[in-house]
Amino acid sequence: MTITLSHYLVLAAALFVIGLVGVFIRRNAITILMCIELMLNAVNLTFIAFASHMNAVDGLIFVFFVITVAAAEVAVGLAIVIALFRNRDTVNLDELNLMRW
Amino acid sequence: MFTAFVFYLFAAVALAGALFVVLQRNPVYSALALILTLFAVSGLFFLLNTPFIGILQILVYAGAIMVLYLFVIMLLNLSREESILRAHRLQRVVGTLLGGLLLVVVAAVAIRQAGPGAPGSVPGAAPGTAEAVGRALFSDFLFPFEMASILLLAAIVGAIVMAKEDLR
Questions:
Q1: DSSP string computed for A54-73
Q2: What is the pLDDT of residues A68-90, one digit of tens each?
Q3: Helices (H), B24-167
Q4: Domain spanning A5-88 has what CATH number?
């Protein structure tokens, strides 16, 4: 029983879909940010699986930059959440309808 | 055989943690489950002969980013936020169905295109050491690397400006 590239790809797809469904069904802004982290991590797993499969270092560099961008995204996203909570006293996305049509 | 056992162990932990993140109502438990998932995925990186990225995942994701999440969750005291069950049944059903559909399509493509016999990783070859990544990062990818530092600086400044109480 050997572990092939498809195993990793299917696992990454499952993780990505769980994160995506989380974005669909959750209404808490912080949980949705965490689900986005889940999706980014699934993509990282795909990159690493292909990089290891092809014995190339380029995929690892991409993962490095994805982690960097994720860190920046989390810092800005959580700052927005803090500012929202301070102004509206909620992080429920259904109640934050100021910019919605 | 050993590789298969480790893979399925880490995969099960990662999937269970991910499901817990989505289904858990308390954001603190969600964050802790996400840390578990990140550790499991990091173990998979080690299994794929990329120890440098695995270490980076633990340090940056589980170490820095998740601490930031927990800090903000506890700062805002959100434990009561989603205790109200909202009437979004249609959204939940349709979202889950569409997600399942996407999973079926992507998994079918992954299995068919990658082929059942393709090896997951080449034993012996180690493309993911710190030396290999560092060499590529500071030669071919030097410009994107510097751009990343500017991006992080902009993110720090933006986060401070937005989270600050009063700018004046």
A1: HT-SHHHHHHHHHHHHHHHH
A2: 999 999 999 999 888 888 888 87
A3: 27-47, 51-56, 66-76, 89-114, 130-139, 142-163
A4: 1.10.287.3510
Report whether A66 contacts A12 (CB < 8 A): no
Domain spans, chain A: 5-88
For residue B18, how far is the Cα from the chain centroid? 10
Number of domains in chain B: 2
Residues B40-62 pLDDT 10s: 999 999 998 888 899 999 999 88
Asked if B120 and A26 come within 8 Å (Cβ–Cβ), the reply is no
User: Same domain, yes or no, for B159 and B115?
Assistant: no
Same domain for B82 and B158, yes or no, is: no
Burial of residue B58 (CB within 10 Å: 0-12, 13-18, 19+) is middle
Domain residues for B89? 2-128
What is the least distance, in Å, from the CA of A84 to any CA of chain B?
A: 9
Quick one: average pLDDT of A6-34? 91
Q: How far is B168 from chain A (nearest CA, A)?
A: 16
Same domain flag for B77 and B157: no
* ipTM field: 0.90
What one-character DSSP code corresponds to residue B61?
Answer: I
Together in a domain, B145 and B158: yes
Question: Is there a single domain that holds both residue B46 and residue B114?
Answer: yes
Q: Which of B11, B22, B120 is facing A53, going by the closest CB pair?
A: B120
Query: Average pLDDT of B74-92?
Result: 67
Angle, CA B57 vertex, CA A83 and CA B145 arms, to 5°: 80
Do residues B32 and B103 both lie within one domain? yes
